[in-house]
Amino acid sequence: MIESKNFSVLICIISSIFVVFKIYTGSNLFLWLFFLLTSLAMLLDKQQHRIDYLLFFISWVYVIKFDISGYSLLVVLSSFYILLSILTLFLQKQGISKRLLLTYFLFAFYTVAVTIVSGGNLIAVLGFVLNYSVLFCAILTLDDKAYFRRYTYIYASGLLAASIVRLISYSIPEIDHFIESMTIVNTVKTMNSISTRFTGLDLDPNYFSLQVLIAMACLLVLFNLDGKKEKKSIVLLVILAFFGILTYSKMFIITLIVFIMMTFVVFIRNNVKTAIKFSSFIVIICGGALYFFYEKLFEIYWIRFFGSGISTDAITTGRVSSWSLFVNEILQNTKVFVLGAGFGTSFAKVKMAHTMYLSTPYYIGLIGIVLSVLYISSLYKVLRENVGIMNRPGFQILSINAIPLYIMLIANIGLDSFVMDYFPYHILLIMFALTMSKSKGTTMNER
């Protein structure tokens, strides 16, 4: 077993180069090299580092395919990770919380059963369960709070690498054509030009920007952790924010403003000097951006917010209409309200809810929501115990560590990422961030 801290980082960089070569040449040989190298590295690496490969490549999920319309190799890598985790748990004879095991099986069985009974898409729901099984295995084998720093940087680095590849692709027709062929290209038309909305290697600029926001929030937690003020976390945060702005996403801008305001409030509550430094930093960054890009950014975002009118439906890009349809579908059908409609059913195939707070009850119903909350709370309880937190006070509302959670809750008012591949990884990072609290409590090491 390889104990090197940087082994997985090196493998991820090499593997990502193979993926780029595959995109450029169209040869699946490079994708086979990616898969074999990553799988072998995952096999040889220590258990807690194996999820690094999934965290890094979760933002690459749509390009690591043999065929654009086929299944992502991340599915195979996730399955391999789960298998290795089970073998590790068995060989180490590690105990598993009965409550966690029960809530996991109830949650997994229920989502699959509802989909089958409703005549939904079995493949879709198995993929959903697979991602939440990865989360299950990750939590069970974590034993140190220090992994939060590692996982945050790995996840943010994957996003950064994906962004750089997309940025470079604008100058390389072969790569640009491949990425554009995956989905409909989102553009913004102004008086003088047509601007392409940045998506990284994702299909949708809004979902890419949500991933960026979660990474930024976790990097902020790292910056504030133990008073170390890690400069590299802020540098990475600013770079990712730049790519987020290029998505021209209304959701991103609104959530970014909330993010800045929440950070300022928490800083000024805990340390006025830090709040002043933070404010000065934001003024300098925003001032520089406005000085160089004011006309272009202002015009694009004005078009994005008000170009279609000032009605609620226009400002929300048709989301109000979608919300109304899903509210009616849920409330007028007792089965859907209580049990859920399952995954891949006819109504959801032609319309998206565009909010997690309606898509979740639509897919899994009231019972499914209760089971998911019980499962996630069990995961959080086990994580706290595994990293040594015994009797810590309750949830702190005004805390830097809670900002990733708030960002996820706010951004998903206009997005339905509960069913997305990356969402369980966001849950992992958010739960981990919540364990980083400085509040006084009893830990295993103190006992």
From TrEMBL:
It comes from the Bacteria. The lineage of its organism: Bacteria, Bacillati, Bacillota, Bacilli, Bacillales. This is Lipid A core - O-antigen ligase and related enzymes. The chain crosses the membrane at residues 74-91, 100-117, 123-142, 154-172, 207-225, 237-268, 274-294, 363-383, 395-413, 419-437. It comes from Lysinibacillus capsici. Keywords: Membrane, Transmembrane, Transmembrane helix.
